[in-house]
């Protein structure tokens, strides 16, 4: 198109003061001539030089287009060679309905042009078969084969469900010659497998065309075996690539297992399965350790059993003792590395701490209280880490159940219940061990709940369903001591309490599933019975005038007030009262001092959480039933508005009955 340009740079395209004249770019252009005729403009003589130039440009453009198309075609052929999925994927020619071309294009892979099989969508919204796109990305590079937009295997997502439903509802013709059935794409595999079952035997029946008799497969050379099984091998390879990500070994092993189990050769199948799973034919060392512990076998007894079984069966079913010791290391505290921020006060930063002597660090001098006992313990923080690592699966499953990403690093809040109780008589029935007390005390903990702070909410991802089970109660310290021995208990448990106090003000950093996560701990001393609460809180024994561990009530006060109770005691108050008891600042007599400290006579060293004890439960129940029985005697349902005198008569009748028949004091 030629234009008349004016000298002004602003009037290059459309001049303001003169009309633009358009001349035809070629003598045989209908558009230009028509427009000229429509305007009734004076016909211009054709510009031959311009027409010639335009003809050359058009020719070049056509050639470029052909080269580009040729390149595109070559690229597509190359990708089809890479994918090589002709035998795996279904051709669009199998479609039973003559769908529109654009629809067929939408449901077919943009690499192999077959019907989409296990479709995936790229970030640029193009659809491919999963195997096709993965193979192309591996060979051609990380970009979309359709638009060359950057694309990585991790970007691939499954298309929307509605599209997959459309895909599964496509009607196909069965490719088997004698079958004229039309089936849905979703049920295609099922239909085809029914054909294979029918014709499986016919496919593999070998016809011996004379010559020497056919040899058994196992008696052939490796080359001959390969030749005979060539077809089967190709079929297995195709199946493995399509279904199992190319793992031919797993497919063959599974076939072998099924063949063995079909002939009831289960022992051989179990051994093969164990080898497949990397376990060997013997038991796992951790399983052997569990057997040894649960059957109460000593090391020498287990070793005898191990040697006997190995000699009789000729196979190493049980693992040797050194393998058990190695397995035990991973289960005991001190195996997993961790860190505290800030570091724990007066606690070593070393994490490889296993079983510690409970008496280590205690000064042994003549003046000190002599401790004739044996005590073993774990370091509190190492034991907590071991317990958390045991619960790793529960924590991650809990996060998944609440639709939380498993890569969240916290902070997790862990509530720990502490328990301590005497284990009664543990004396040796025979033998001459060390001279130690014949009673034992066990201090343990249970992880009750784990919550994670997500946004502004706390999500509970774990809760112990059986908090009183021995399976979730982790041992922390075992000592041969009497639970009434306040000095021994204080000496051995004080380091544990110091570690606990340090952990309250610090945060644990622990790697779980390859991610460094943070944990905070809340300790609840609720697993103590009344006897031990009195022991660790420094109170007098249960025969004391001050009968309650929660309030300052004496026996007389408790008997006069059966209903109203309130928790008034606390650990800090008990400590203050102990100081008063120890120093007697007001120079009082024993009775006056005892009345002032309300039954505190020893140093409290463990903080217990106030919880209702058996005594108050009994008082509450007794008061309630006492009322119920009175109402029953006076038939209150008949006479709800009884006078005070009548109610007194009901009470005296019940008291009389309790004295005479039950031999109980009404108080």
TrEMBL record:
PROSITE patterns linked: NBD (PS51487), ZF_RAG1 (PS51765), ZF_RING_1 (PS00518), ZF_RING_2 (PS50089)
Top-rank lineage group of the source organism: Eukaryota
Main location: nucleus
GO molecular function: double-stranded DNA endonuclease activity; histone binding; protein homodimerization activity; sequence-specific DNA binding; ubiquitin protein ligase activity; zinc ion binding
Cofactor binding summary note: Binds 1 divalent metal cation per subunit. Mg(2+) or Mn(2+).
GO cellular component, one term: nucleoplasm
InterPro entries: RAG1, RAG1_DNA-bd, RAG1_imp-bd, RAG1_pre-RNase_H, RAG1_RNase_H, RAG1_ZnC2, RAG1_Znf, RAG1_ZnH2
Entries under CDD domains matching the protein: RING-HC_RAG1
Catalytic reactions on record: S-ubiquitinyl-[E2 ubiquitin-conjugating enzyme]-L-cysteine + [acceptor protein]-L-lysine = [E2 ubiquitin-conjugating enzyme]-L-cysteine + N(6)-ubiquitinyl-[acceptor protein]-L-lysine
Annotated compartments: Nucleus
Stored Pfam families: RAG1 (PF12940), RAG1_DNA-bd (PF26024), RAG1_imp_bd (PF12560), RAG1_pre-RNase_H (PF26025), RAG1_RNase_H (PF26100), RAG1_ZnC2 (PF26101), RAG1_ZnH2 (PF26104), zf-C3HC4 (PF00097)
Biological process (GO), any one: T cell differentiation in thymus
NBD domain ranges (all copies): 210-277
Domain notes: The NBD (nonamer binding) DNA-binding domain mediates the specific binding to the nonamer RSS motif by forming a tightly interwoven homodimer that binds and synapses 2 nonamer elements, with each NBD making contact with both DNA molecules. Each RSS is composed of well-conserved heptamer (consensus 5'-CACAGTG-3') and nonamer (consensus 5'-ACAAAAACC-3') sequences separated by a spacer of either 12 bp or 23 bp.
Function: Catalytic component of the RAG complex, a multiprotein complex that mediates the DNA cleavage phase during V(D)J recombination. V(D)J recombination assembles a diverse repertoire of immunoglobulin and T-cell receptor genes in developing B and T-lymphocytes through rearrangement of different V (variable), in some cases D (diversity), and J (joining) gene segments. In the RAG complex, RAG1 mediates the DNA-binding to the conserved recombination signal sequences (RSS) and catalyzes the DNA cleavage activities by introducing a double-strand break between the RSS and the adjacent coding segment.
Protein name: V(D)J recombination-activating protein 1
Organism, scientific name: Alligator sinensis
Gene label: RAG1
């Amino acid at each position: 198109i030629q234009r008349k340009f004016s000298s002004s740079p602003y009037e290059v395209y459309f001049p303001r003061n003169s009309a633009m004249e358009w001349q035809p770019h070629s003598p045989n252009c209908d558009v230009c001539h028509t427009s000229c005729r429509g305007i009734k403009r004076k016909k211009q003589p054709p510009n031959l030089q311009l027409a010639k130039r335009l003809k050359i440009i058009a020719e070049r453009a056509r050639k470029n287009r052909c080269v580009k198309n040729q390149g595109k075609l070559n690229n597509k052929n190359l990708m089809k060679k890479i994918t090589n999925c002709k035998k795996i994927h279904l051709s669009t020619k199998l479609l039973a309905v003559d769908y529109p071309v654009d629809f067929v294009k939408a449901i077919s892979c943009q690499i192999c042009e077959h019907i989409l099989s296990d479709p995936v969508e790229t970030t640029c919204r193009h659809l491919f078969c999963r195997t096709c796109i993965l193979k192309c990305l591996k060979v051609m590079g990380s970009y979309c084969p359709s638009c060359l937009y950057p694309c990585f295997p991790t970007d691939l997502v499954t298309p929307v469900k509605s599209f997959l439903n459309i895909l599964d509802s496509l009607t196909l013709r069965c490719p088997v010659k004698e079958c004229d059935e039309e089936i849905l794409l979703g049920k295609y595999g099922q239909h085809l497998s029914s054909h294979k079952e029918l014709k499986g035997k016919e496919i593999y029946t070998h016809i011996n065309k004379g010559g020497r008799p056919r040899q058994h497969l196992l008696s052939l050379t490796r080359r001959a075996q390969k030749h005979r099984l060539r077809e089967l091998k190709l079929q297995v390879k195709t199946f493995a690539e399509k279904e199992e990500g190319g793992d031919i070994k797993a497919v063959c092993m599974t076939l072998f297992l099924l063949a063995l189990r079909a002939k009831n050769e289960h022992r051989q199948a179990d051994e093969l399965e164990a080898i497949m799973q990397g376990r060997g034919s013997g038991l796992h060392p951790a399983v052997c350790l569990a057997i040894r512990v649960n059957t109460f076998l000593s090391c020498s007894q287990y070793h005898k059993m191990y040697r006997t079984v190995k000699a009789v069966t000729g196979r190493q079913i049980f693992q040797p003792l050194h393998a058990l010791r190695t397995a035990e290391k991973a289960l005991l505290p001190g195996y997993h590395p961790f860190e505290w921020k800030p570091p724990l006060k007066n606690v070593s930063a070393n994490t490889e701490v296993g079983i510690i002597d409970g008496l280590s660090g205690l000064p042994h001098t003549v003046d000190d209280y002599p401790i004739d006992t044996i005590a073993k313990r774990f370091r509190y923080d190492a034991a907590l880490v071991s317990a958390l690592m045991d619960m790793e699966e529960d924590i991650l499953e809990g996060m998944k159940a609440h639709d939380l990403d498993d890569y969240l690093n916290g902070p997790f809040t862990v509530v720990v219940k502490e328990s301590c109780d005497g284990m009664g008589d543990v004396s040796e029935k025979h033998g001459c061990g060390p001279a130690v007390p014949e009673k034992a005390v066990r201090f343990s903990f249970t992880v009750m709940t784990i919550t994670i702070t997500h946004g502004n909410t706390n999500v509970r991802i774990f809760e112990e369903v059986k908090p009183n089970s021995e399976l979730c109660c982790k041992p922390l310290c075992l000592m041969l001591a009497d639970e009434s021995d306040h000095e021994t208990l204080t000496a051995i448990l004080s380091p544990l309490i110091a570690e606990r106090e340090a952990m309250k003000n610090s945060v644990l950093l622990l790697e779980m599933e390859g991610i460094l996560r943070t944990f905070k701990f809340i300790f609840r001393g609720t697993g103590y019975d009344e006897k031990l609460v009195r022991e660790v809180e420094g109170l007098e024994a249960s025969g004391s005038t001050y009968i309650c561990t929660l309030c300052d009530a004496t026996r007389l006060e408790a008997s006069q007030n059966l209903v109203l109770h309130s928790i008034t005691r606390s650990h800090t108050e008990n400590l203050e009262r102990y100081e008063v008891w120890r120093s007697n600042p007001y120079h009082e007599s024993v009775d006056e001092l005892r009345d002032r400290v309300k039954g505190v006579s020893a140093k409290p060293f463990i903080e217990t959480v106030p919880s209702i004890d058996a005594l108050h439960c009994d008082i509450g129940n007794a008061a309630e039933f006492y009322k119920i029985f009175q109402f029953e005697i006076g038939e209150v349902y008949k006479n709800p508005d009884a006078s005070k005198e009548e109610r007194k008569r009901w009470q005296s009748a019940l008291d009389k009955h309790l004295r005479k028949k039950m031999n109980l004091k009404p108080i």
